[in-house]
């Protein structure tokens, strides 16, 4: 039985230089693969180095919407170089974030569309950040069709989920699903087509409910997060591991090719 963490910021400052221990602990818990998405040009090299150092880790590269205020058009040229590498499994983390008012929405959309075009050019899936911007993201995805990807930390409506699925996307579920009060999200996890769901931690963010307040999320917790999905679906944890891994292989084909 093995799991795939489709979204883990293993390079995050909160982890310092403890990545070797984090990867070992994750493997011991049954997490066989970890996708590490970059968020800005400043961490492209670090994400690349982690992918080279740890065979179970795979890089994705993108400019996160919350970093677009400082991003420059030249960053897209550099991104192109990283996307051309055979080890790259996706373009991401990219998307839109309309939750925080002071970010320039037009600038976010400029970089998002530019990166969708790169995903088209390199025939790569995308890892989407979709906070409070689902409908606008769907509009751009219809205009700039990519080979699918993952709507990371999905928390939209059932109708929005269905639209992502129609466009070839899987939906990422993680720590937020473990909270009993997250009734709408848990209903989605329980009722969406199971072949549309993948698992993630977003470590060190979105800690599950079984952690003490303020403790960082870690990839080793993914099987415990998966147990919530198993309970909601009345399935065994082994079946959840198998199905979600198949789902990842279908949406991130380079990940299975390099495993």
Structural topology:
Blueprint: E1 3-5, H1 19-29, E2 31-37, H2 44-53, E3 57-61, H3 73-83, E4 90-97, H4 105-122, E5 126-131, H5 134-143, E6 149-152, H6 158-166, E7 169-173, H7 183-191, E8 197-199, H8 222-233, H9 237-251, H10 253-257
Parallel strand pairs: 1-2, 2-3, 3-4, 4-5, 5-6, 6-7, 7-8
Helix pairs in contact: 3-4, 8-9
Would you kindly provide a written description of the structure presented here, covering whatever features stand out?
By secondary structure, the protein is α/β, with parallel strands linked by helices. It has one domain: TIM Barrel, CATH 3.20.20. Helix content is 42%, strand content 16%. The chain is built from 10 helices and 8 strands. The protein has helices at residues 19-29, 44-53, 73-83, 105-122, 134-143, 158-166, 183-191, 222-233, 237-251, 253-257; strands spanning 3-5, 31-37, 57-61, 90-97, 126-131, 149-152, 169-173, 197-199. The protein has an 8-stranded parallel β-sheet with strand order 1-2-3-4-5-6-7-8. The two termini are 15 Å apart. The mean pLDDT is 97.
List keywords for this structure.
8-stranded parallel sheet, alpha/beta
Number of strands: 8
Uncertain segments? none
Spatial strand order of the main sheet: 1-2-3-4-5-6-7-8
The number of helices is 10
Q: Which structural category fits the helices and strands?
A: alpha/beta
Order of helices and strands: EHEHEHEHEHEHEHEHHH
Concise summary:
The protein is an alpha/beta fold and 259 residues long. It contains 10 helices and 8 strands.
